[in-house]
Predict the 3D structure of the following.
Amino acid sequence: MTPEATPSDPLLHPALLADHPQAIPLHAVTPQNWEDRAKSVGPLAQTYAKQQGFAGQDGQIIQLPAQDGQVAAVLLGVDAHKNEDSVFAAGRLAQSLPTGDYCLGEGWSDQNAAALAFLLSLYRFERYKKPDPKIRRLVLPQGCDGHALTVMSQSIAWGRDLINTPANDMGPHHIEAAARWLAGLYGATIACIEGQALLTQNFPMIHAVGRASTRAPRLIDLTWGDPAHKKVTLIGKGVAFDTGGLNIKPDASMLLMKKDMGGAATALATARMVMGLGLKIRLRVLIPAVENAISGSAFRPGDVLQSRKGLTVEIGNTDAEGRLILADALALADEDSPDLIVQFATLTGAARVALGPDLPPFYTKNDTLAKRIQELGLAVHDPVWNLPLWNRYRMMLDSKIADINHISSGGFAGSITAALFLDRFVEQAKDYVHFDIFGWTPTARPGRSEGGEPQAARLIFELLKRDFSA
Ligand code: BES
Ligand code: ZN
Ligand code: ZN
């Protein structure tokens, strides 16, 4: 860090500088125009870049020297044709540059997205490790909203931390503590129904799934905002750890199941953006938080559960636990007829088979809303893809002894049948959208650090800001 830097605004992200005249410019270049940019730094720079094999290819980075040996500028090769995430390419720089203060130079088509990608890529999960000694900072580009960038990137980082934290330090009560911390930050109201009280207050499926754990199941209920505004309810699957229950998962499938509260983390991260940036909506966040554990009191395959909605549910497989706890939360959400319910859940392996880890499927009966969501996702680099609530598959959930089975008999269309099951618990809400997210980035790419990722949070914030905020 250099002493010339203007002291940062305490409300700005610590990696954002209000101003810094000596910051090193970062230029986005192509194979066609990189030589001109290098030349503008000085005659040495172009020769040096060539010698180093820099040719402006996608992903290439070079630090150009000034006469005095200091870094004068940085070039990043960006090829919009090769790379659909090219607007987020600045994230590559955040991941690889040495300590220093930087600013965006030439060649960035969307400075706000570039700054956001830079901040998002700085993230590291450091709870159990020494912090990275490298400090890279970015001058806030002209015309960008530093407060918005700060709230967006800090909300995502928080969501990632919640997912990355292993289940020994992220049980149902830790998820509650996180929600309480957020409520305190923005003056939201929060209530929690825990353990036996889930039975007396009629959340039988949340209790059944969570009762085998020594860490009690609970339903977290947060509200914020003016009751006169549009009512939006976010729901997140909060399975602190998913062993599969008595239908226990094989070792490889269980290894990552600390991330099974990824939906809860996404709902909380979205709520932080909504409250932090003061959207004019009445927000409610519902998180059923449980651990799908194994003990003598575990629910079993073949059991028939009562649900809050009144439907009886036959259990086909205790590993399909997420939809059970969500069904009770959805029934509650539906009772006050909100304008919109948005649900996030790491619900099925089938969603990953269909679309891979980067593109979560989503479901809604409103085709106009579906189109809007899919377009906004692409626009804010938080892509999702619409899949159908295919009516003919409803019969796959028929049960001989209960109103409904929670899984399909054949194993076909696993993500769709999960969505169809959940759909039975919503009647009154004006609109309802369900996201079957992965919640994880297997290998880092620009704007996405490896590990937990609250997928679709930025997208839903954008939707709420544009279409629901009064
Ligand atoms: N949490 C899992 C789904 C999951 C697995 C999400 C891997 C992301 C990555 C969920 O509770 C589950 O186990 N679902 C089962 C359902 C099946 C038993 C009908 C699945 O998808 O295999
Ligand atoms: Zn499961
Ligand atoms: Zn699960």
